[in-house]
Amino acid sequence: MSNQNAQTISIIVSGAAGRMGRGVCRAALDDDRFTLVAAACRPGSTRRGRRAVEEHPRSPTLQNPDEIGVFADVVIDFSTDPGARAAVEIARRARAALLVGTTALTGPTLDAIRDLARDHAVMIAPNTSPGVALMARLAAIAASQLGENYDCSLVEAHHAAKQDAPSGTAIRLAQAVREHAKLPDNAVLSIRGGDVVGEHTIRFAGPGEYIQISHTATSRDLFVHGALRAAAWLRGREAGIWTIEDSLNLSAR
Ligand SMILES: NC(=O)c1ccc[n+]([C@@H]2O[C@H](COP(=O)([O-])OP(=O)(O)OC[C@H]3O[C@@H](n4cnc5c(N)ncnc54)[C@H](OP(=O)(O)O)[C@@H]3O)[C@@H](O)[C@H]2O)c1
User: Fold this and answer.
1) In the Cβ-directed half-sphere of 207, how many Cα atoms lie within 13 Å?
2) Which residues pair with 213 in a beta bridge?
3) Which of 9, 141, 148, 187 has a 20 to 30 A CA-CA distance from 86?
4) If we measure between CA atoms, which residue out of 162, 109, 231, 235 comes closest to residue 244?
5) What is the pLDDT of residue 49?
6) Closest CA to 47 of 75, 23, 16
7) Coil, strand or helix: which one is 8?
8) How far apart are CA 88 and CA 93, in angstroms?
9) CA 85 to ligand 1 centroid distance, Å
10) What is the pLDDT of residue 6?
11) How far is Cα 52 from Cα 202, in angstroms, rounded to an integer?
């Protein structure tokens, strides 16, 4: 892997004109530990978000994914399913690790990501918040302790523009619970509206009590800084699929 400056972590951002992508670009451009070597947006994209990145004095011009041919340490993707697939190819050409923050990935895209992970470090991170990673561990512990005697439910709320439901985070949390207890599909509820950044609550209801584990994101910056911290951890890691929990020493494996 190559790096323009050995002191910094060189990154490429995929989905750079989007809400998350432009946040990652701007945070990296303002952080001496990172060098933004390239940024990709959807071919033909004319979004205002493009300008929001390119007006930064140190920003590279946003490019189509297939135009990007520089080396980097880590590709950070916050886009869409086709964007994530394009990010796999960017990472291959860049000989870079890949951090996928995009949610609602299709089977073929997951296959392409797993194929990349044979030779590259890859992190699939449907939520880059350390608090949510801790919540997943707590939920797994609660599910294993309370087991079958408690009814488990999961409610998530997000802003009106969010495309996927349930959220990638809800799917990740449900997976953590289901390793130890039942969580029926009809007990996973999604609410969309307003500008809610992200709320997730898991409830275990039993005889005479219930216990809730909740997480509320109050700013998208949480995910931006979580992504940059995860990218720093991912740089130079051995090939394979990693999780945010691994990067925070919260993994049960
Ligand atoms: N992991 C986390 O912690 C976390 C946190 C928040 C959001 N997310 C996820 O991150 C993703 C992006 O969220 P967002 O809120 O930033 O959405 P957004 O504002 O809609 O941004 C998505 C961006 O991806 C671009 N795009 C689409 N196809 C592309 C392609 N082929 N190549 C490159 N870029 C492409 C879109 O361009 P156009 O608009 O021009 O189509 C848009 O700029 C979603 O899946 C969301 O669920 C994850």
Assistant:
1) 3
2) 202
3) 9
4) 231
5) 87
6) 16
7) coil
8) 9
9) 12
10) 59
11) 36
Q: Show the ligand 1 pocket: residues with CB < 6 angstroms.
A: 14-15, 17-21, 40-42, 45, 47, 49, 65, 78-80, 82-83, 86, 101-104, 125-128, 168, 223
State the DSSP code for 238: P
Report mean pLDDT in 10-residue bins for the chain, 253 residues: 67 96 97 97 85 94 95 98 98 98 97 98 96 95 91 97 94 95 97 97 97 97 97 97 94 69
Q: Answer whether 96's CB lies under 8 Å from 76's CB.
A: no
**How far does the centroid of ligand 1 lie from the alpha carbon of residue 29, in Å?**
19
58-86 in b/e form (b: 16+ CB < 10 A) is ebbebbebeebebbbbbbbbbbbbebbbb
Predicted confidence at residue 179, as pLDDT, reads 94
CA dihedral 137, 140, 142, 148 (to 10 degrees): 180
Whether omega for the bond prior to residue 57 falls within 30 degrees of 0, making it cis, is no
Q: DSSP string covering 200-216, please?
A: EEEEEEETTEEEEEEEE
Return all residues near 3 (Cβ < 8 A) that are at least 6 apart: 9, 10, 35, 71, 72, 73
CA dist 70 and 95 (Å) reads 9
Sequence-distant (6+) residues with CB within 8 A of 107 are none
Say how many Å lie between the CA of residue 105 and the centre of ligand 1: 12
Rg (the chain; Cα; Å): 19
Q: Are 196 and 161 in contact (CB under 8 A)?
A: no
**Residues designated as active site:** 158, 162
Measured distance CA(20)–CA(23) in Å, rounded:
5
Question: Residue 17 has which token pair?
Answer: 């004109």
The residue type found at 26 is R
